[in-house]
Write a structure and sequence with these properties.
The chain is mostly helical and 212 residues long. The chain has 2 domains: 78 residues, no CATH class; 121 residues, no CATH class. It is 62% helix and 0% strand. It has 12 helices and no strands. Helix 4 packs antiparallel against helix 5, helix 6 runs parallel beside helix 12 and helix 9 runs antiparallel to helix 11. The longest helix has 22 residues. The radius of gyration is 23 Å and the shape is elongated.
C-alpha cells in the first residue's frame, strides 16, 4: 500500500489539524485527487477543479462513490469557510488590539486572532509585558518547550507567537538605541496576573507606550 504520510500531514495542517475532517476514503481510493486538491488549496483554480469533481457524471456508472462525494463537498465547504474574512475582535478589546497593532507595527490582518480566541489570558500576559525585556523571556519560555508547545498551541497560534516575538525584539532593540534622555528611567508597574482585565491592561500598555 502506498505511503501517503506526507500528503496527510500537509492536508491536516490545511484543516487546522481537525482529524475528523480528514478524507480517509479519498486518500485510500483516490489519492491523486487528494494530491491535486492540496496543490490547489487557496488558489483560484480550486473552484473550477471542485466543480468538475462534483459535476454529474456524463455516463451512468461513472463518477465518485457517495462517500467520496461527501468528503469532497466537506473539503469544499471548509475551504470556502476558511477563506471568508475573519470576524473582528469584540469591541471591548479594541483599545488593546489597537495598542498591539501600533506598538508592533502589525498589519490588521496579522492581528493574533487565534491567540486571542484560544488563549485570551496568555495574550493578556503578553500585553502586560509589552515594551519590556521580560516579554522576550516569556515568549522564549512559551516556545522553548519544543513538541509540548506544538501540542499546547494550534499551528496558527504558534505562528502568531513567533511573529510577536520577532517584531517585539526588533521594536525593543530600536527603542533601546535611542539617547538615554529619551527613555523612561521608571520601572514598569508591577502586574498582578490574577487580577488582569482589559481596562487594566489597556491603561498599562498605553502608559508604557507613552513613556517609550
Amino acid at each position: 500500500m502506498p505511503d501517503h504520510t506526507a500528503l496527510r500531514t500537509r492536508l491536516l495542517k490545511l484543516l487546522d489539524d481537525e482529524t475528523e475532517r480528514y478524507p480517509y476514503f479519498l486518500e485510500l481510493r483516490f489519492p491523486h485527487v487528494l494530491e491535486r486538491l492540496v496543490a490547489l488549496w487557496g488558489k483560484p483554480q480550486i473552484a473550477g477543479y471542485l466543480d468538475g469533481l462534483l459535476a454529474p457524471p456524463k455516463t451512468a456508472g461513472q463518477g465518485f462513490p457517495e462517500q467520496a462525494r461527501r468528503e469532497i463537498e466537506a473539503l469544499r465547504a471548509f475551504h470556502d469557510r476558511d477563506k471568508l474574512p475573519k470576524e473582528s475582535p469584540p469591541i471591548a478589546s479594541l483599545p488593546v488590539r489597537e495598542t498591539l497593532l501600533s506598538f508592533l507595527e502589525l498589519h490588521p490582518e496579522d492581528y493574533p486572532a487565534s491567540l486571542e480566541s484560544e488563549h485570551p489570558q496568555l495574550l493578556q500576559k503578553i500585553l502586560s509585558l509589552l515594551g519590556t525585556p521580560q516579554l522576550d523571556n516569556y515568549l522564549d519560555t512559551l516556545l522553548g518547550a519544543g513538541e509540548q508547545a506544538r501540542h499546547d498551541f494550534s499551528e496558527r497560534a504558534l505562528v502568531e507567537i513567533m511573529t510577536i516575538k520577532a517584531l517585539h525584539r526588533a521594536r525593543h532593540a530600536a527603542l533601546t538605541t535611542l539617547p538615554a534622555h529619551d527613555l523612561s528611567t521608571q520601572s514598569p508597574p508591577a502586574v498582578d496576573d490574577n487580577s488582569i482585565d482589559d481596562e487594566h491592561i489597556a491603561s498599562l500598555v498605553f502608559d508604557r507606550v507613552q513613556r517609550w
